[in-house]
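Reader question, answered in our methods column.
A reader sent in the components of a multi-part assembly and asked whether the whole thing could be modeled at once rather than chain by chain. We filled in our standard form and ran it. Here is what they sent:
COMPLEX SIZE: three components
ENTRIES:
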Amino acid sequence: MLNYLLRRILLTIPLALGVVFIVTISFDLIPGDPAALILGEFATPQAVAELRTSLGLDRPLLVRYVAYVGDILQGDLGRSIRDRRPVTAILSETFPYTVQLALAAIVLVLIVGIPLGLLAASRPGSWIDNVIRVTSLAGLSMPVFWTGLVFIVIFSVNLRWFPVSGTGTWRHLVLPAVTLALPSIAVVARMTRATVLEVLREDFIRTARAKGVGETSLLYKHTLRNALIPVVTVLGLQLGQMLGGAVLTETVFAWPGVGRLTVFAIFNRDFVLMQGLVLVLAMVYVFVNLLVDLSYGLIDPRVAYS
Amino acid sequence: MLTTRVFTMVLLVTMLLTGTVLAQKTLTIVRPTDPVSLDPQLETTAPGSWVFSQILEPLITVNQDMEIESRLATSWEFIDPTRLRFTLRQDVTFHDGTPFNAEAVAFTWDRAFNNDPPGRWKALAGPVSGVEIVDEYTVDIVASQPYGPMLLTVTMPYTGVVSPTAVETMGDDAFSRAPVGTGPFKFVEWRANDRIVIEANDDYWRGRPALDRIVFRTVPEEGARMLSLRTGEADMVLMPTPSDLPALEADPDFIVEGAPGVGVFYLAFNLERPAVSDVRVRQAVAHAIDRELIAEAILEGGGVLATSVIGEPVFGYKDMELLERYPYDPERAIELLEEAGYTRGNDGLMRDDAGQVLRLDALPSNGRSLKDREIAEVLQEFLRQVGIEVELHVFEWATTFSLMRGETLDYDLNSFTWFTTTADADYTMYSNYVSTETPPASWNRWRYANADVDEWLKAARASLDMDERAELYGMVQDQLAIDLPAIPLYGSYEVAALSADVTGFVAHPIQYILDLFPVDKP
Amino acid sequence: MSLAAAPQAPAAGATRRNDVWRRFRRNTLGMIGAVIVIVMVLMAVFAPYLAPNDPASQDLRARRTAPNVQYLLGTDEFGRDILSRIIYGARASLVVAVTSVAIGLTLGSFLGALAGYLGGLVDGVVMRTMDLFLAFPYLLLAIIIVSALGPGLQNTIFAIAVWTIPAFARVARSAVLQLKERDFVTAAKSLGAKEARVMRVHLLPNFGSTLLVYASLYLAYAILMESALSFLGLGVQPPTASWAGMIASGRNYITSAPHIATIPGIAIAIAVLGFNLLGDGLRDAYDPRTVKR
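And here is the structure of the entire assembly that came back:
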């Protein structure tokens, strides 16, 4: 078990370095000079050249990459090109917002998505199943930024229940969380339904049914545990994507999280910030996957880690 | 019905309660972007200046009528053409208790001119070279050669004086996130991409401001900014949506405050490209565009019809009489194109002798100035009407900006807003129209070259005689109207939408200046 | 993202196809999806005949008019006919979605099948590279690609195609792995069939159905992805009509003229729903166990 954990964590390292390498290369390919952008409209070429040197932009790509890896190993993620603040400071300021939003959304997904899926699976082919199927598909089909806009118009402007944008109170969190959760609720409901139906066909369920176990107890006791593994996998994927930054939701609701920060970093050619972000995102991804794998063991003790 | 009523009651009670608890007067301002920094050393964009100019004060400033007003200096005079002497206030202290004196002024300017790298506003200061201390409350600002716009240079909000003690104890990095000055408001906190909070300076030398707190919130979505004003989450919206302004103006709950600005959005031609190097083609483009309709239908009050390549409040402005010279007349545009050797085919497109369609590549600014992307689409359609095919190359700003600054410009058309930041014609005219001022060193992107214009602009820069300067700039503008290297489309209109509770706000022609000292929420 | 169960019965071609069609026809939702998709395709193909107006033609004096008799869905901020732009917008959405998914499917399933069939080092290298791509939040990956290459139709397609490759690779690989161990493949191999022939004759037809289901679902995601990029200003360029581009510019008028941003949103939702229903229907048809006990 400990071995397994250790190996998984060690595997993060090549992954993270690979992702950072991709970022370093791609920012070299993107047109647009961060130094010229920082200095603005009226900078002299000499000033731009000086700034390039002081930012280390004039060094070859590989040199920059190796130097950066060296810095990472010392726990230094560098300074943002745009505002020269330590990347760690920027990240520790931004991440809590993203975590807050992602957790709120994932809780919604858990308390709405799974019950909906169970309900649908309990009466497959019935009208309620069809209603849940169609609405969850509809939820999956709406562009997130559009749903967000429509929510703002209905709940902020017309009903005045929630603020239009920003952070501060729990009321600020409601609309972004619901907007972000909606497609995931749909995914999880569909997954739950599908796996529960799958499990219900398994032999042991047939045996249990033949033995006269009641339908409700059958569904909840015997089936759910076995159906949970794929559902948890999907939940993990969703959580991973949410923690990776809900770019569109954050844009629409002016939520100061990682998604907006990343777009901001890309648009400002702030590759140092981008490298740090990507590094952390890759770690989040691995961490969430690890959590998912570990939860398999909790759900089903037969799962062995090797 | 009942539930709505109960809900309203609850809401009212909550509002009353919070109202009594927060007897503080807080003004919440929403604007689209977070600053890079709050230190003028690193930050020269409006979102930064709107905040730091509440905290840091320059020696002198320009008011809404473009007259010079005293701030940290009580009087000033030219003692020779390259030396401007300021007498400073003696009763001022910084927010950290440091006394304000000549040393602080010298510290601020030295930092901008001699630090490595130098302050970003140094490039705006022309031949101004630094500050010399005369005595504890007297300084000379000096230039390496006579410089007409010198006085206006000192009014730039970037020259706001910083507390030397604070910079030294905090270090540049920390100071840039929490500046200390002499202004009416003190820095409280900055949560990146979310909000910046400043509070009243009780000991301000002009008296305590009426507001207790100002919260600058970052809301990138234009729609959301407007909505937050309507829902009461914000008291003031900077850069509001023009199309919402008429409704707000008609509504007694809101105020719309605006002033014609110093920026001009224009369509520029790259004179090195064969098609548009022909002045008839440029004139045809001018005739093909209904500029009044663009102002009315796209800007909808968010901008004013431009009458010159510089804004009306700028020193040296002269009306280029563009509507008289180039009225909207598609027929005339087609005639001009035919004169230039193009023939119109059955598909309505203009072709040259070789049968090549008259196609122009355009590099429009996108998301940088008001409605720039929309205007690009409208121009494309106007030009299609007279047979010119326009291909839009819309990039995000970083890419567009680096293309604009390139050694060569591979586009026929480029649209952009240029702000005459110093409010003196020299700032725009010199860098944009002197033949040697080409990118990347400077901004003559259209590769315009006219020996007369070169000579007039150089003379106007060196002269301290304001009447003579104004006349020279007038001659330049007349010549530009004939040569037409660029078609001015609209002038910036610095507008804010406010809740009717807010009093005392007057819009300023210079986008960078936001005067919140007299503002109150009685 | 629903993970489709791999289809089971390796029955003979024609009869199986008939079975599938018979089951699909009885699936109301799937049929609705198919109809939506067909309507969308027709709209895209016959746009010039269906659209009442030129989608690029502006009338600045008739801007932001609410839906009325002359303009059934109203006009946008340039006075362009929204109905015509919706009809033409189907083109942009379909072209981007179909091309990018086709590229992703071809490359992805080839890579995945190769990895699964050959195993060992090839498998390791290919699948770890795919993991690398999956480690990236996908929208950000697309934004980086489009920023690097510049916005526009081709680069949007490329960015979305890159994003779909890992998914198809995974499907193909797992299908191949499952089938590889099946008796009929082992049998064919033991009978001395060449590897290439085994792949072509036995494997392709069998994971083809899974890929078809996936392709349909990914067409839905591709439309959403294109809309996300266009919303951020990185998608199809003007004056080409694009649904998300319409939302992006209409959102500024969300209170004064809500129809500009809401109508294209509904168009996107219906189109995506169509492909999702179709994908679901196809899966149920290929693998009937998921519907009824």
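What stands out: Chain C has eleven helices and no strands. Chain C touches chain B at residues 56-58, 60-61, 63-64, 77-79, 147, 150-151, 233-234, 237-239, 249, 251-256 (CB under 8 Å).
Send us your own complexes using the same form.
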